[in-house]
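Bug: token stream looks shifted between consecutive jobs. Job 1:
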Amino acid sequence: MTEFPRIELASENALILYLDKHTSETVAATIAALLPQIRVALGDNLLDLIPSYNSILVQYHPLKTDHFRMRAQLKALLKAQSDKELNNEQGELVRLPVWYSEESGPDLAHLAEQAGLSVDDVIALHEQTQYRVYAIGFAPGFAYLGEVDERIAAPRLATPRKRVPTGAVAIADRQTAVYPAPSPGGWNLIGLCPQLMFDKSASPPMPVRVGDRVQFYHIDKDTFLRLGGKMETFR
């Protein structure tokens, strides 16, 4: 009997669906496929869906249904999904511009040196991959993207910066991300993105969702500024 997928009680009106013990491209694609199916199947009984690396939290209306019915519906969706051929291109493809340079990415040269690559090689490897949005957390709009090519994977900094600017594009281990707002951070900074990753006045407020795919592309400084990017201080 397999341990996954499994459904567990999370609270008096929530179940959590675990797809696997670890995250992977396949697990992320499965989550991306299940989210719209769950929304349609549960309809007005659904209060919220919160996807993560390898799980989905399903919050339901306790006055309209109960966890027995919810569990049965989720099991049926899982069974139907397991019978389908999984499409790893689930989710939208979102392309984000990046000004890669030693001026905009203070860790770019060091990362290249540590990897035994040129700066241009690091940039090429970073922008050639389509990254899956595994989770959104830490701050609104902070999307954890994976997997970075193992040749440019890099551990977090031993001493985090006190301030990382909005739009900083970074790598930590085999994940990459764009900082949505100024904050402390220990990831390796390789460039700047002019696209706002969180705008509460926009609809939707974020350009990506869990399950989407992200691909970066190279722009120059003038284009970065023209697109609304701002030069800020790294500390």
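Job 2, same session, no restart:
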Amino acid sequence: MRRSSTLLRINRKTVTRKKKFLATQARVELIELIQKLYPEGSGATDVQFDDMESFHHTKLKPLSIPLVVENNTRIILGFGVCAMPAKGLNAVKSIKKYGYRPDDRAPMWRKIFKRLRPYIDQSAAFHSDKNPIYPLALRKHFPNAEYTRSRSRRACVVGQGELKSGGFDPLFSLNHTAAMLRANINRLFRKTWCTTKRPEALYDHISLYAARHNRHIIRKLELT
């Protein structure tokens, strides 16, 4: 954003306001694109979902990025940004410095699945890893769905942790899309100094990318 303001010779606050405006427009476009792809009476029938992880200013304040995609096409159906507690070696440091952090992942997943009900078939096939918070959130809004869970696998370096090393990946569409988010959104790089200062700004950034991502895929589908 600083570089944009420098190149365009405008105030950085102008870039911030424009980004927020464009992100709002992008979210409207996302809904329109999904409605175009799944008109009333139809819906996605093969769906994959999982959490990506980033952080808010410091790794002691991690953020979860729930992501839902259609298998095979890799259309982004839904996403969010929410707070989560630090894990591993950072947990004690995080509590000591910032206190206990809320875990908003389960409420966020319920919110996303509720939002996606018109665009996903009630008997659709869902696939995720074995995170224990997923089943309850999914069953609340898709009680008749076929739900399959796979064990998480070791990541390869080139996919920044999202693509898996060796063999068949049952969550390839989801992981490939997540790797593309990391490759195209600088604040999601594994090693970056472009850190998120406000979670809502990360949500706006993902909104801009998701609209472009879906527009590109839908255009390819129309040409085939």
